[in-house]
Structures
1.
Amino acid sequence: MNAPLLYRLPSAPAAAGLHPTVLARLTALLAGGAAALDASGAFPHANFAALHEAGLVALVVPRHWGGAGAGLSQARRVVAALAHAEPATALILTMTYLQHLALGHEGSRWPLALRERVARDAVRDGALVNALRVEPLLGSPSRGGLPDTVARRDAQGWQLSGHKLYCTGIEGLRWLVVWGRTDEAPPRTGVFLVPRDAPGITIVRSWDHLGLRASGSHEAVFDKVALPLENAVDLRAPADWAPGAGSAAEQQAQALHQAWMAVLLGALYDAVARAARDWLLEFLRQRAPGSLGAPLASLPRTHEALGEIEALLRHNRVLLDDAVAAVECGEPPPAADSGLLKHSVTAQSIEAVERALKLCGNHGLTRHNPLQRHLRDVLCGRVHAPQSDAVLAAAGRRALGL
């Protein structure tokens, strides 16, 4: 039994790369290979070749650099459509979109020439980019602390050394946006732009996760990687990275980035839950136990259980629609509200898939049925920063005025 291939998108005007037939073709292509990618954990090179051919890798790149200049509603539609079919590909693309958003912001501290180079590489070659932030000892920098990845000055520029975990898409990236610190006293922290093919980079193929197996989120080790001086694209005193620090324009950019991240990750995991729901509908229509003499879809208790899933998915859509509308009106929600959006949509997506599993029983855990894959994939939504404990604690402090 196969799940439907097409994610039914909310209606929206056609735009570059968003013609329904383009998304239908790509969704069918990705869905056809999803089970094999899950089994092998191989990087989805063919998927990204197809996405580049359709102009979707550079969808968010500003028009003046050759991209489509798409906004959040269009990016959400693409991520949701692809995630319904193969969510690891959608996750890697999401991370690239978030970097392209930052490159296009007028207040970016990056040198203009490097911003343009990364953007035009995406347009010309479909080059992917992602941030590398997590470390064995530091964990996620969103929880504070100085990174152990260190850049030391020499006569030519910088030498970067360190160790990063969970480098999503590392096998297919062209550019690495690496979080590190300088060896100065006091140190500065920030971002170093590193070409993936620079000498001194070793990929440790350690990614063997339960879900999103094709995301290729392996480790990267940097051993005195030589970088030009200008590739330290954004270095600041550590305190200047704290929430609420920086100019009003920088705080607005941060809120915008958090809103995009919450919406795109939320859309991704919501799409996984919808794929699970779609498979479940076909299963219930076809499964007719001999003791019943009719399909499971005929039972009133089935209708009620499905209604619970529909309520969760509708709540997701309302939350995502509301956040997109706020962003496109030029008023992105505060970062704390974006965190709550991510928490709520992720939790409801997981609950929807768990309810689907409960309704179909052992059939849902059978490897040749996709529901068990959807369950493994949707659980990965919990690990993305900001994580729920931090989000809820921040919301509680805000409610108390602390």
2.
Amino acid sequence: MSAAALLAMVLAGAGGRTADEMAAVLHLDDSRDVRVGALLRDLADTDDVTLSVANALWARDGYPFEANYLAFARDSFGATVDDADLGSQETADEIDSWVREQTEDRIDGIAADLGLPSGDAVLVLLNAVYFLGTWTTQFDPADTRDGGFRLSDGSTATVPLMHRTEVSVPVVQRDGYRMLRLPYGEDERYAMEILLPDEDVPLPRLLGSLDAVEWADAVAALQPAKIGDLALPRFELQWKADLNDPLRALGMNSAFDGGDFTPMSPENPFLGPVVQKTYLRVDEAGTEAAAVTGGVMLESAGQSFRADRPFAFTISDTQTGAIVFLGAVTDPRG
């Protein structure tokens, strides 16, 4: 969700083919689809769990951004917009401080991952999501005991396994896996779905067959069932990745290749690194999770001309127009 929100803010400044590609990747109708901001507000409208979503933009001081683009970011996404020197370490430190504040110190920063400070950066966009939920029925720490966890290479590791006995929870058996849902809070609006592959199904095969339709169908088929022993490991995860290659694989290419961002600025910057960092912890009490996704718009360097493939050439007289030499280079080594 954090990545989608960040990219939707970038999309609001895109035009032409660039906007078409990004909107297709995000499954949105147009470049300024107000449903994204509305969804973020709706998700955070709960007292059952803690869920906060924050957006922020840091714009290079003096760079000509379109006023209606910045207004849309403020109005639709609730984003703060600050003028800053993106080439200074002070601004990079300020960005990292914002990340720590919005994620309750679970993510220590993202500036260095985005290549900041940078003299080429004209706009930094950030989205942060923080979630804290307690299980509707918590696990008793006294029932947590060491048990075996089979690793993907076939070996077994000893880990703390949380246990609940004789519980009624929503479960469904699907082709190759079972899904179980554990709710949070009294209202049970939010929940964790656990997808456990069948004994003979490797996890990569399950993930390869899982798409939005299959997930939704599985959720719709959940039915309460009596579980004699529910065992779940405690775990704590941290992850980060550059999202540029996955986004290209989804069809978002021109944004990174000098596409059309003139609705954002007449200077037409281009999208540089897009990075996500996440944290998630599951224990007897519940779940804490945080994510921050950042993107940097870079100053356009103008057109490029790289003779890095076979080419032809002429040597001519500019006064008479006569061609004196004409040739082709297919291998510069001669």
